[in-house]
Specification:
The complex is a heterodimer of chains A (185) and B (145). By secondary structure, chain A is an alpha/beta fold. Chain A has one domain. Chain A contains 3 helices and 7 strands. In chain A, strand 1, helix 2 and strand 2 form a beta-alpha-beta unit. Chain B is 15% helix and 32% strand. Chain B has 2 helices and 9 strands; from the N terminus they run αβββββαββββ. The chains are: A alpha/beta (185), B alpha+beta (145). At the A-B interface, strand 3, strand 4 and helix 3 of A face strand 7 of B.
């Protein structure tokens, strides 16, 4: 049985962990969320106050030709760069370039999502239990998933256009950050 | 340019003639027909300057949007596609043409649905005159794929 910390499976587990963390942050801030699977099954929850559309958190882009619903987010681990720690061993610090892309129902909502996600990732939202910039990755293949690693979240940056070529652009924001995995964590 | 209508100009017949192809082009399913929506009154106690509620979970909800359907012609002008991490945004544009009597009912619209897709008002185009009949045109842009 290969070590789940090695190879591509870890990257997939990391992306799942990022998606779950995003949902945890959003629900901590009181939003109603639903998954890509629930969207495809048509089981979309309703928001009691009716003031916003429920938030869909996905791991992949909406299929071409399909409508991108308001309040959709996509969590992506795009690439990795490994920095060797010492000569003669294969220990390295892996830095995963990661993104949460946001399409809000309007610009105000988009800004609010962006701010909430940034606070949650940076660990500056103790009221919802996010007081450290970390992400926990579990081995989901096990019946009781053990914690594989607790990685650091670094360099959280948020971006939103201020000049728009198309009306949808004013409702899009991107949060980019690095997930740093040390071999001893 | 419109001028004084000659005696031979039959306004009723002209209006009926213009509305006939509009009627023909309307989708059979009423839900897919062009539906126009207006600025919603803000009834939340705490809002930002754009009218968006600051407290999303408390207080009163916005009034449900009521759409208005009128007879119009819809012309598609395909826009550019933008690939993003979220998916593909197709910035399609449509030009909506209505006669003055229908325009009076929808002149303040801010968004509309065409075939179930959501569009926002982009630009009011030149108003054509047909003697005593005015033809209004407005461009709308897609917000989603």
């Amino acid at each position: 049985m290969p070590d789940p910390l090695e190879g591509g499976r870890f990257e997939r587990l990391l992306e799942i962990a990022l998606t779950e963390l995003t949902v945890e942050i959003l629900e901590g801030f009181g939003y109603v969320t639903f998954s890509q699977a629930e969207f495809e099954a048509g089981t979309i929850p309703t928001v009691p106050s009716g003031k916003y559309e429920p938030v869909q958190v996905r791991m992949e882009a909406v299929d071409k030709g399909k409508v991108i619903e308001k309040n959709t987010m996509v969590c992506t681990v795009a690439g990795v760069r490994s920095d060797p720690l010492e000569i003669g061993s294969h220990l390295s610090t892996d830095r995963y370039e990661s993104y949460v892309e946001i399409y809000g129902q309007d610009r105000s909502m988009c800004k609010q999502f962006r701010g909430d996600i940034v606070a949650g990732l940076r660990g500056t939202a103790p009221s919802i239990g996010r007081d450290r910039p970390v992400i926990e990755v579990y081995d989901l293949l096990a019946a009781t998933p053990p914690l594989l690693t607790t990685a650091q979240i670094l360099d959280v940056e948020a971006d939103m256009k201020v000049v728009f070529d198309s009306p949808w652009e004013e409702r899009v924001a991107q949060v980019s950050f690095i997930i740093e995995v040390e071999p001893w964590q | 340019m419109a001028g004084p209508a000659p005696q031979s100009f039959n306004e009723t017949k002209v209006r009926a003639g213009l509305r006939y192809p509009m009627q023909m082009g309307m989708p059979v399913d009423e839900a897919l027909r062009p539906t126009f929506y207006f600025q919603q009154p803000t009834i939340d106690a705490t809002t930002d300057p754009t009218g968006a509620a600051l407290d999303l979970n408390a207080g009163t909800a916005s009034e449900p949007e009521v759409g208005v359907q009128v007879l119009c012609a819809v012309e598609q002008r395909e826009g550019e596609s933008d690939e993003t991490v979220l998916g593909t945004f197709d910035a399609d544009e449509y030009v909506i043409t209505v006669l003055d009597e229908e325009w009076a009912l929808i002149s303040n619209f801010v968004s509309c649905t065409l075939g179930g897709r959501y569009f926002v008002r982009s630009k009011e185009l030149y108003h054509y005159g047909l003697f005593t009949v005015t033809v209004f045109q407005v461009r709308v842009e897609a917000l989603d794929a």
